[in-house]
């Protein structure tokens, strides 16, 4: 299993720091959730891993090798990314889009092998989209399209999987299904999530970003505290133990007076 290491990754744009010396390790086969307020640098961090952005300073290492020393074609095989805007302009059928996940492995005009066709079918079944195989992706609902893109990422058979808010558009059953599947996949996963309860239930570790810097990283129980919710997100919350799973569960106060009471006791 392949480790992903971000080592002092700094990104500047127009002289402003978007990411400040971010150091974060995702051990092989683990799922690390990246959380933080809007604009805290989560997508910027992911972009450095899937090479849409080049860090100003610092390095990203996959399996111990600096990404800069890996040919783009090779990292395109080992790192799969599900981005916010991925696939929104693809005028293909579902089966074709899923098969595109094999593109980094196909040299020249080689057609898909029998094994690869089976891989695509298995992924469509796992994501519950097999019945949509011949539909154009542009005709799908947001949640259906999101599952197509996850299937495409899985058939790539990457070592590292990067996901930017993959539960966007998914109903609660599909959110839980997707994240449990990631957890059992054996892949090294770095995933941006806004739903902290979902992160608590499905991530091995949670990393919190604020203002482009890492605030803390650790097991959900160590990270998701009422103090962190107040200081980083400006939200009043109580943390309880989920009665069925034992995971931390955040109960948010929705009344502004309660929030004010916690923020300014
Ligand atoms: N090319 C750029 N030039 C200037 N600023 C940028 C650029 N790209 C991103 N930013 C800014 O950097 C900050 C971090 O953006 P980023 O998309 O990484 O945040 P995020 O944590 O993913 O936010 P969200 O939760 O809203 O998706 C934001 O303030 C954004 O406006």
Automatic annotation (TrEMBL):
InterPro entries: AAA+_ATPase, ABC_transporter-like_ATP-bd, ABC_transporter-like_CS, P-loop_NTPase
A Pfam family: ABC_tran
SMART domains registered for this protein in UniProt: AAA
CDD domains xref list: ABC_Iron-Siderophores_B12_Hemin (cd03214)
SUPFAM superfamilies: P-loop containing nucleoside triphosphate hydrolases (SSF52540)
GO molecular function, one term: ATP hydrolysis activity
Location of the ABC transporter domain: 4-236
Key words of the record: ATP-binding, Nucleotide-binding, Transport
Annotated protein name in UniProt: ABC transporter ATP-binding protein
UniProt lineage: Bacteria, Bacillati, Actinomycetota, Actinomycetes, Micromonosporales
